Amino acid sequence: VQLQASGGGLVQAGGSLRLSCVASGRAFSRYTTAWFRQAPGKEREFVAVVSGSDLSVSDLSTYYVDSVKGRFTISRDNAKNTVYLQMNSLKPEDTAVYYCAAETVIVEVPSCTVVAGTWYDYWGQGTLVTVSS
Asked: How far apart, in Å, are the Cα atoms of 93 and each of 14, 44, 51, 65, 123?
């Protein structure tokens, strides 16, 4: 599985960006896929996750870190093998390199498993988001 993240950039506080993560693999709909971020001098942090499913898109679950709830939305388009992170009302503290991560199994969302970066076997290269004040 290969992941390609894109969509980062420089934006003013209050602005929006949409990150994309394109995945290889035939069973993409089953992948549990998440976004993490790492700010300068800080540890990597879980941001959001969307579950995989054998059924319809309506059966998907999502979960967010408290600091982005109500501002960020994670979604997936299985026909395009893509997961998105729509980021609105951006704040300077959202500045970080954002990474998408995937695991090829369906697990319960939310759960302790899906917020742990060590659980994911596949990672994209990261895309830089800079929010100016």
From this structure: 12, 14, 26, 14, 23
Report which residue type is found at 62: T
Q: What angle do CA 128, 92, 110 make, to 5 degrees?
A: 75
The C-alpha atoms of residue 112 and residue 84 are separated, in whole angstroms, by 22
pLDDT band at 58; cut points 50, 70, 90 = low
- Do 37 and 67 meet the contact criterion of CB atoms below 8 Å apart? no
The DSSP element (H or E) to which 12 belongs, if any, is: strand 9-12
Rounded distance between C-alpha atoms, residue 80 and residue 15, angstroms: 26
Percent of the chain with pLDDT over 70: 97
Cβ burial of 60 (10 Å; 0-12, 13-18, 19+) is middle
Helix (H, G, I), strand (E, B), or coil: what is residue 98? strand
Q: What is the DSSP letter of 119?
A: G
Residues 40 and 97: beta-carbon distance below 8 Å:
no
Residue 60: pLDDT band by 50, 70, 90 thresholds?
confident
